[in-house]
Amino acid sequence: MGAGSVLLSGSRTPSIEEGRRRQGPLWLQRTKWTWASQPLTPAEAESCRASCFVMARFWLCAAATVFFLAFAILYSRFSGSLVLREFIFHISWRTEKILYRLDVGWPKHSEYFTGATFCVAVDSLNGLLYIAQRGDNIQKVLVFTEDGYFLRAWNYTVDTPHGPFGHTIKKYNSFGDLVQVLGTPGKKGTGLNPLQFDNPAELYVEDTGDIYIVDGDGGLNNRLIKLSQDFMMLWLHGENGTGPAKFNIPHSVTVDSSGRIFSSKKNFFFFLVSQVWVADRGNKRIQVFDKDTGVWLGAWNNCFTEEGPSSVRFTPDGKYLIIAQLNLSRLLFVAAPPVGSIGYCSVISSIQLADQVLPHLLDISEKTGAIYVAEIGAKQVQKYVPLKS
Known about the structure:
By secondary structure, the chain is mostly beta strands. The chain has helices at residues 16-23, 42-77, 82-92, and strands at 100-102, 116-123, 128-134, 141-145, 150-154, 168-172, 178-183, 200-205, 211-215, 223-227, 233-237, 239-240, 246-247, 250-264, 269-280, 285-290, 296-300, 311-314, 320-325, 330-335, 347-352, 359-364, 371-375, 380-386. α2 (42-77) packs across α3.
């Protein structure tokens, strides 16, 4: 060999410049091939082999994980696997999001709030808001535009809503004219023919005219009733307790109009189910029922260890449920369950209100997605708008 040659076994160690020139950027790496004057000890060689093995295993596991997730997502889209859907669902909502902001300019005329504002209903078709408040010698119903302008108020034939002696459900037109009365004014009861109530907490009216009533804010009844638009009984769950389809202060009710697809493994078919969601406040859970048959479908309770839900509504796009917790003064934004199951309650965002604000019932505009929250502690209604707007 000529002078300055690199030896694999010999007596001369190359200079640094020679190493750079011959080995390029890897010239300082020590492998089993090394300069003759710096051989690896057996321990060093074994350590090197172990390190290489660990790195190779790491990258192999990483690649396998990526492949598995990609496969699971694709497979869950094109198969009936509820387990995979649940798995992907929980991964996709790991990061909390900010979805809504307070509209500080709403309403334009807050001086009309003179009582405990406990309930709000949105007429999205006409862009109107109906706000009910409790108190003596005050207007019980206030009418605002969704933009926050006060229109009118009325107090004719209105009992104290959702409270003492409120044992009826009354239907009014938009100007406060009484149209229909269900129940006996001033008299609580449990009867079904004719219908009697004891402090009904809330009702929800579908576009079809069907009516869902939760009857029993701490009174005789703990019932969920579905009526047709001509007030005929369609189905009923009406027993106090903690088991499936039993209630302890059912306080709010809404319908998932988008529906969910459920599968039958036994018969290998799929069917669309529109669901009724009930805030079972005393039992610290939400119960879910088939809208058409009243069959119990499942329950959520994992989000409500501190306090039960007092109000529940779906966003217009069907992606989220908005849930109010009264004594915690908190709004929860919960991901709607994946197609194919009730799933589990997965909170992706929340709004913590000031102490003693007490959000009681809420409603959502079908047009704008704005949330209107009736706060009995603060004696006001506040508006939250989607962040994108």
